[in-house]
Amino acid sequence: MRRSVPGLAALAVAASALASPHVLAAPPARSHPASSHAVIAIVEDAVNVYHHDFADPTRTASPARSLPGYPATATPLRLHLHTTDLATARQLDDPVWASLKADHLYYVPETRFAGLIWLPSPLDRTTSQVSVSYPPPSTPARPVVDGDTYHGTGVASVAAGTRYGTCPDCDIVVVAADNPEDGLEWAAAQPWIDVINNSWGGPLGAPAQLQASHPDRAASTGASAGSLAAARAGKVVVFGSGNGVTDLGPTTHGTQHSLTWDSPYAGPPWVLTVGAAKAATGQPTDWHNIPVDVIAQGEDRPAADSTSLTGADVFVGTSCSAPIAAGVIAEALYRARNATGDRHVGARHGSLLLPAHAIRTGPAAGGSLTYLELLDAARAVAGWRAFDPSTLSSDPTQALATPTTPAGFAYEGFGVLDRGSVATLTDVLLGRRAQPGRADMQQWEAVATAARSARWGAAPNP
Fold first, then answer.
1. What is the mean pLDDT of the segment spanning 328-349?
2. Burial class (CB in 10 A: 0-12, 13-18, 19+), 246
3. In the prediction, which pLDDT does 386 show?
4. SS3 content of the chain, % helix, strand, coil (to 5)
C-alpha cells in the first residue's frame, strides 16, 4: 500500500524477483460488443500505459462520445504503442511526455485509458520536477511514466487489466497525483467516474491534521475530503487497509496492526476497507490493519510489469487487495448496466444504475442503486473461508479470530472478493438471485458502522 510517503515499492520489487512466476488460469470472459460503460479511477503517481494488458485497438475516438459528462476538451495522447520494446516507445514519445500539461485531461487512443491527468504538487509546479525512481531514466524525468511505475502499473493491472484485472471491461482513468488526496478530490468531482481505488494512505489520523482547514475535513472531524465528496456524489470509494504499522506486512508478521477506524482514509463508514487474503487458501493474512470490510488476494498476485510491453510481475500487499475488490464492484456494475441497457456513467440522481429495462427485485429494484446499496451487496456476496487454525501466528489477536468472533470478523470482514464474485454480484444487482443473508455478519457490521460513524460521521446519502 503506497502512502503519501514512500511505502512498499522497494520491498515489492525485491519480492517479485524472488517469487516464482504465477499466471492466472485464464482471463475472464469479456462482454463484447456493448455500449455500456463503467469507469474506474486509479489514484497513482506513475503507470506503464504502454503495457498490452491495457490495449484495446477498437478505442480510437474521444471518450466524450461514449461517456456522458466526459469533457469534450480532453486531448488524445498519440503514443507509439506498437514498438518492439518499451525503451523504444519511451524514446520516441519523449517529446509527447515533455509537453504534458498539468491539470489537463488526456486520453490514450487504442487503449482503455479513457482518462489521464497529471496533478503535480505545489512544489513541483514551482520547480518543474517530478519524483523518479532509482536509478534515474536515461531521458529526463517525465510525469506519469517516470516514478513508482511498479506500484501504479500493478494497481491498474489487477483492477482493470484485460488479462490480470477483475474489471477487464472498465474504462480506466489514471489520476497521476503527487499528493494522492488531490487525486482523490479530483476524481470525486468528475460526474462520469463510478469507482475510485486508493492504494495509498496511512493508518493514523495525522495526515488529515495537516490539512484541517479544508471545510469537508472540518465537517467530518478530519476525514478525507476527497472520499467524503465522492460519497456525496454517489461514487464507490475503496481503500486498502494498510500493511501494518511498518507498512511491511508481507515480510513482517505478528502484533503490528493499526486500527483502520482511526484512519481518515480507510476509517469512514462510506469507504470500503479491504484487507489482504493469502494466495493459496483465501485465509486472511496476519499483517494487514484491522478491522476490514472484505479481503482480497494480497500475496503473489500476477500483474502487468512496469518495464516491458507484455511481461508479468508479482504484486503484493493491500495495494493489490484494494484494486481487486474495486474491480469486482466495477465489473458487476458494468455487466448490470449492459444487461439493462443503461448507457449512463457515474451516479445520476443518487443512483449508479438507471436501467432501461425494469428490475423488480433486489437492491436495484425500482431502478435505483445507491453506492451504499452496491457496497452492501458486495459485502454480502464475499466468500467466507472456513478459518484454518494452522495459519495462526503468535499474534494474540489472531488467536481469537474464529469465524464467529469479533476478532475473526475484524480480520476477514465479510470474506473474499475476487473474479468468482463478479457473476454472483451481477445476479444480485439484476435480481436474478437473492442477496445472501448474513445475519451474524450483519450484527458485526452494525457495530462496526456505529463505531466508524461515531468517529467520522454518518455515511452521506447522495
1. 97
2. exposed
3. 66
4. 35, 15, 50
Domain ranges of the chain: 36-456
Residue-averaged pLDDT of the chain: 84
Contact status, residue 44 vs residue 152, Cβ threshold 8 Å: yes
Are residues 43 and 177 in contact, defined by beta-carbon separation less than 8 angstroms?
Answer: yes
- Cis before 33 (ω within 30): yes
| Fold annotation for 36-456 | Rossmann fold (3.40.50)
Backbone angles phi, psi at 294, to 5 degrees: -145, 175
How far is it, in rounded angstroms, from Cα 398 to Cα 249?
A: 15
- Alpha carbon distance 43, 385 (integer Å): 30
Q: How far apart are CA 132 and CA 336, in angstroms?
A: 40
pLDDT: which is higher, 457 or 221: 457
pLDDT of residue 9: 35
This prediction has a pTM of 0.88
Comparing CA positions, the residue from 95, 105, 93, 100 lying closest to residue 124 is 100
What pLDDT is stored for residue 222 in this prediction? 80
